[in-house]
Amino acid sequence: MSMLTPPGMGGKYRITGDKYPRMRRSRRRGRLVLGLVASAAALGLIGWGTLQLIDVFTGGGKKAAAAGAKADCGTRATPSTSAAAATAPKPGRITVNVFNATPRSGLAKQTADELKKRGFKIGDVGNATKEYDKKVKGTGMLLGPASSLNTSLPVLATQLGTAERRTDAARKGTDLDLILGNGFKTLTTKKDADKALAELAEPQPTSTSSKKTC
């Protein structure tokens, strides 16, 4: 065996000249690199999965709830205004007492006659009581029981839109009082009054459609 023969060769390979046998590198280094790459990939997948879980239980859940709330908002319908219109009685079912709180004579009867032509029932006609006589500064005052606030009182108000509206919880019955004030000249024109009555009986259908409440 030559002195230049590598140990473990068992004399199989002999070195001649200036060339040496080529030795193979160990495969351990390649396996180690592959293992590191696989570990990094696994850690990346685990981290991505963790982020997804966090998103579901925090932000993602909130987004889903917000989306559900938005969808729910779009399906909520507001109460139909036709129900409110149904509570407004016809002028023929409303009895109006006409009282004159001004110094002008004959004003109550003149106004009562006009209201009668427009379909209202007329009750008492005369001078206002001491409580209101010459104390109503505006065009007039509409007075009725508490139940008339959203029923008959708005109907009478179509005939004198500038009049003050008042209700009395202690008042009995369904009659309304029209007390003519110092600023009164005439009732609302019949054309405008009829238009207001029509709008009161058949309001615009905007509130019958669904609305978002969020």
Please name the defining characteristics of this protein.
38% helix; alpha/beta; single chain; 2 domains; five-stranded mixed sheet; 5 strands; 14% strand; 214 residues; 6 helices
SSE layout and pairings?
Elements: H1 28-57, H2 59-74, H3 81-86, E1 95-100, H4 107-117, E2 121-127, E3 140-145, H5 152-157, E4 164-168, E5 176-180, H6 190-201
Parallel strand pairs: 1-2, 1-5, 3-4
Antiparallel strand pairs: 3-5
How would you portray this structure in words?
The chain has 214 residues and is of the alpha/beta class. It folds into two domains: 29-74; 83-203, no CATH class. It is 38% helix and 14% strand. It has six helices and five strands; from the N terminus they run H-H-H-E-H-E-E-H-E-E-H. It has helices spanning 28-57, 59-74, 81-86, 107-117, 152-157, 190-201, and strands at residues 95-100, 121-127, 140-145, 164-168, 176-180. Strands 2-1-5-3-4 form a five-stranded mixed beta sheet. Helix 4 links the parallel strand 1 (95-100) and strand 2 (121-127). The chain is rod-shaped and about 120 Å long. Residues 71-84 have low confidence and may be disordered.
